Amino acid sequence: MTGTMADLAATTGIEVPTGLLIGGQWTKGRDGGLIGVTDPATEETIAEVADATAEDTLDAVSAASAALPGWAATAPRERAECLRRAWSLMIAKSDALARLMVLENGKALPDARSEVTYAAEFFRWYAEEAVRVEGSVLTAPSGANRILVTRQPVGVSVLITPWNFPAAMATRKIGPALAAGCTVVLKPAKETPLTALAVAEILQQAGVPDGVVNVVTTSSASRFSEAVLADPRVRKLSFTGSTEVGRILLKAAATNVINCSMELGGNAPFLIFEDADISAALDGAFLAKMRNGGEACTAANRFYVHEAVADEFTAAFAARLEALKVGPGLDEGTELGPLVNEDTRSKVASLVDEATSAGSRVVTGGSVPDRRGYFYAPTVLDNVPPGAGILGEEIFGPVAPIVRFSSESDAVSWANNTEYGLVSYVYTRDLRRSLRVAEALEAGMIGINRGVVSDPAAPFGGVKQSGIGREGGHDGLLEFTETKYIAVDW
Ligand code: NAD
Q1: What would the mean pLDDT of 28-51 be, rounded to a whole number?
Q2: Is 0.85 topped by the overall pTM?
């Protein structure tokens, strides 16, 4: 290992546990295996965390199962208070958590800071929701009896999260699960386990009882999922990650008919009409493309720009991207950090190379900078042919392909020409057009004259192969409950 845990604590200001959290105890795991965590800006190992075996994973399920009856029976107000304390602790430690996230993920410090605020907000929002789990009572149409409907916690929940938002993807699941009365086993991505472990420790400090939140880090995601999905005590799988892995997990979850929520990949179109406020569209496009360095499921992946404004938009957008300060996320003034690892960077580079060979024009970027770390230059590609591969795949990097259109119907049909349907963005000053297009776009979320849609109070999620279910808002809580109908004759 290049750096020590003491170095990490000195740089971040936080001491992070590196074991597995099982039943309230931090343990090294049964065989003492370790996984290295790499700083994408230096390619150096900054920490090592425990590598769980299948038996460790099942110990975590046992702990969650043992804690379930007590937590489900805990007063909603008390569950809410734990979450509220966790929110306050996260805010108090936000600078340290942001620095930690930069080191394991690579994102620039301003992105990490806004993620911590966003992530903590899921604890506050679900503290408020924990006391609002409603049911209903109605009279049967025959008038003979009553229909009583209640909601109960779904049970032991397995949460699997990606590396791109290491804090928010965890709190967006833990918050509603705990509010609903469920206990959880969280498996963070092996690239970014430290943030999840720090959040778990915060939950302990907030008074969450032992066994309610368990965290298992592992080098083998399939070893983990095979163990948990075969265990009949597990009743819920909440997954955020790629559509490819989502499909594998849905198949595996079918054996025990496990309740699944799936937040999967995106391929967001960003439509700019000829009547748009171009300066606002530039701000929105910049946020939608560059937030988190382009490593977001909501990232604008394809820009469809009306031909009347395409030259103006393209030149101004390229100038903005070119002016970005690229460097290690903790360096003063850095606006764009490295990608998370070499695989991600080579995928971005090959998509750009392929688009260029297909006739796209590189307006800016299009290259791997000559420096250490997994950097890729901010890139704008113009005149991308509508059938180019880069328009069909998640880029997950700082690359903006621009396609010109001349009719609204082409723009909408090209935007919908994808198996994904997470989010779409529309810029126009015409209210009727914005709502007409919003209705026609096949996506779970639409940003109208906005480049960011995420909000803990809003239902986040996709249609088509972008997912099943919603996170955030009241809907996010319902995902961790089961409806129970009680037929009553009174
Ligand atoms: P990924 O699918 O490779 O991994 C996600 C998580 O699944 C990680 O924890 C990984 O270890 C785990 N995993 C991988 N194979 C597994 C298996 N066989 N069994 C169990 N777990 C397994 O995705 P990623 O590269 O970490 O993240 C990027 C992807 O996540 C993108 O596709 C992005 O769009 C998506 N994402 C979606 C949302 C959303 O809310 N819709 C949010 C963030 C990221």
Answers
A1: 97
A2: yes
Q: Is 434 in the pocket of ligand 1 (CB under 6 A)?
A: no
Is 82 a residue of the active site? no
Helix (H, G, I), strand (E, B) or coil at 468: strand
- Give distance in angstroms: CA of 315 to centre of ligand 1: 34
121, 191, 263, 479: the active-site residue? 263
The SS3 of residue 219 is: coil
pLDDT reported for residue 1: 60
Query: What are the Cα distances from residue 381, in Å, to 30, 103, 318, 362, 404?
Result: 50, 30, 9, 5, 11
Q: Are 324 and 240 members of one domain?
A: no
301 shares a domain with 157: no
**pLDDT tens, position by position, 284-305:** 999 999 999 999 999 999 999 9
Q: Are residues 415 and 447 in the same domain?
A: yes
* Mean pLDDT, the chain, integer: 97
Residue 116 covered by a domain = yes
Distance of CA 459 to the CA centre of its chain: 13
Our answer on whether the CB atom of 265 is closer than 6 Å to any ligand 1 atom is: yes
d(C-alpha 120, C-alpha 109), whole Å: 16
Q: pLDDT, tens digit, for every residue of 46-74?
A: 999 999 999 999 999 999 999 999 999 99
Q: What secondary structure letter does DSSP report for 270?
A: E
Domain count within the chain: 2
